[in-house]
Design goal:
The complex is a heterodimer of chains A (282) and B (243). Chain A has 282 residues and is mainly β. Helices cover 11% and strands 34% of the residues of chain A. In chain A, strands 12-19-16-17-14-13-20 form a 7-stranded mixed barrel. A 6-stranded antiparallel β-sheet of chain A has the order 7-6-9-4-1-11, with no helix packed on it. Chain A starts with a strand and ends with a strand. The radius of gyration of chain B is 20 Å and the shape is elongated. Classes of the chains: A mainly beta (282), B alpha+beta (243).
């Protein structure tokens, strides 16, 4: 068990999300940066479906009520155990009553805390990912006690850590495919999409990222149809929205681009005022 | 089956199949039949089937390696005569209290139209609506068949909180809020029925292709049913719909 001493701004339990329930109108959810959360699980030899904690914007603290082994991956929020800095992407043995803290951001936007055999909050519709109206809890709160998998073996701390390529956090090239309505855009609209440097507005969350810059919109709305995490919608005002993991399953705005799986993970590590360009796959 | 379909890749892992761009029961029927055909042959590879008014989107479990070949497979499934037995479709009777206590926009709607409050209520309850698909929120049904006299523009400023069970009209559509949510639709009543319960094995009773009819109830009856629903003692009345 792990006790939440300080919950931070937006911490939630996440796994790979919900499959097979989109027909009920249920969003996919799941870790925003699936690459980093998978990596943390893999370093612990966990199953890839084990749930992790997603911590956005740092400043939280957890007390281990039982011993276990953990791995931290994704964004760097100066993690410390008993006040001593610990490395990312490595196995760390933790003992009863030790406190893990996350503070100042060094890079990235979302960090993942994996524990041996995963977090065991209640799975609903085959996933533990928090989502309003699906799981009882939407966000972690101070004082919460989270059940974790039984720690049976004695994996020691490791002296080595896995390096993540810098471009996972720093790349300003967001790879995408044409969206279903891309071809309805004019040549000049396509040109702007490809050349413009876009800025992430402060309206960004697990549902989607609104961008500051837009393009002139001459397209009509579409009849409501499927959307996915990574779908770039063109709103009537000309502003662009990139849908993220908690997005609805259907929408009525033209879908001009679709981010690759890798690009969604990279975007999940960007925050307000970060800039990037769309790179259309040929 | 309608053969004028277009196929488009939708990112690395999905294929979008589109029918001509309008809303019709015939397209819905075609779409559901095609979906059932695909489900029979490809369910191991497809994670989600997302229905829109004129589209069926297949989300695969893994990235699609050969898009052209996959589309050919789908086209051959489409060509097959759908002799398979259709899934049963139901007509669900949903009790709705159209009292002004819940129908807080009824007076304004009557002012904006030629109809009286009672005419709005009775016209809304007279129609049988078709469930086209679910989206927007878990358990939100997109219903087709609203009477054109009942088309009301969305409110210019959405409400921050529309209660769960609110029965509303937005533009040319009518629907029920399955959970409390911000919303800009005009509210004309409330149902005690729960449209979505994530803890149930079948979280939403209705599916695409089913039908919905609203049955007016009094305020007293509303509270009585609300209690029954809370105690898990209410069964929604349903009728098997034949072709």
């Amino acid at each position: 068990m792990i006790k939440v001493l300080k919950a931070g701004f937006y911490s939630s339990v996440q796994d790979k999300g919900r499959e097979g329930v989109a027909a009920l109108g249920v969003p996919v959810s799941g870790a925003m940066d699936a690459y980093s959360s998978n990596l943390a699980n893999r370093i612990l030899n966990n199953s890839e479906t084990d749930a992790v904690l997603e911590i956005a914007y740092g400043f939280c603290a957890f007390e281990f009520l039982t011993e276990t082994t953990i791995c931290i991956s994704g964004a760097h929020f100066s993690p410390k155990i008993k006040g001593v800095p610990v490395a990312l992407q490595t196995r760390i043995r933790v003992y009863k009553n030790e406190v893990l803290t996350f503070g100042q951001n060094v890079f990235g936007a979302r960090c993942y805390l994996a524990v041996k055999n995963g977090f065991l909050t209640t799975a609903i519709l085959n996933s533990r990912s928090f989502f309003q109206g699906i799981t009882q809890q939407t966000l972690l709160g101070k004082g919460d006690v989270l059940p974790i998998g039984t720690f049976t073996n004695t994996i020691a701390s490791s002296n080595t850590s896995v390096k993540i390529r810098n471009d996972h956090f720093e790349s300003q090239r967001i790879a995408c495919d044409k969206g279903p309505e891309f071809d309805a855009l004019s040549a000049s609209q396509k040109e702007i999409l490809a050349r413009q440097v876009f800025t992430i507005s402060n309206d960004n969350s697990r549902m989607g990222y609104r961008l500051n810059e837009g393009i002139e919109n001459t397209l009509p709305s579409i009849l409501t149809s499927a959307v996915f995490p990574g779908t770039v919608q063109l709103t009537p005002s000309g502003k662009l929205i990139i849908l993220m993991r908690d997005c609805q399953v259907t929408g009525g705005y033209p879908r001009v681009l679709q981010l690759t799986n890798t690009a969604i993970n990279q975007l999940a590590q960007k925050k307000t005022n970060d800039t990037f360009q769309f790179v259309l796959k040929s | 089956m309608n053969k004028v379909l277009s196929y488009k890749p939708f990112g690395e892992q999905a294929i979008l199949i589109e029918w001509p761009q309008y809303i019709s029961d015939q397209i819905l029927e075609d779409l559901l039949r095609f979906k059932e055909g695909i489900q029979k042959e490809k369910s191991h590879f497809i994670a989600d089937y997302i229905i829109g008014y004129h589209s069926l989107t297949l989300k695969y479990k893994t990235p699609i390696l050969n898009y052209t070949a996959e589309v050919e497979t789908l086209k051959s499934i489409c060509k097959k005569d759908a002799t398979s037995k259709k899934k049963p479709r139901f007509l669900w009777e949903i009790p709705v209290c159209y009292d002004l206590k819940f129908g807080i926009d009824l007076e304004e709607m009557a002012l904006k139209s030629k109809l009286s409050i009672d005419e709005i209520r009775s016209r809304h309850a007279a129609k049988t609506y078709t469930v086209f698909f679910l989206g927007f929120l878990p358990g939100f049904l997109y219903l087709g068949g609203l009477h054109s006299d009942l088309f009301f523009d969305r409110k210019p400023t959405p409400r921050l909180k529309v209660p769960r069970g609110a029965v509303a009209i937005g533009g040319k559509q009518t629907g029920v809020y399955p959970c409390s949510s911000p919303g800009g639709w005009n509210l004309l009543g409330k149902t005690p029925i729960q449209f979505f319960d994530s803890t149930k094995k079948q979280p939403c009773f209705a599916k695409a292709g089913d039908q919905i009819k609203f049955k007016p109830i009094s305020l007293a009856k509303f509270y009585q049913l609300e209690k029954k629903v809370a105690e898990n003692k209410y069964t929604i009345s349903k009728t098997l719909v034949h072709d």
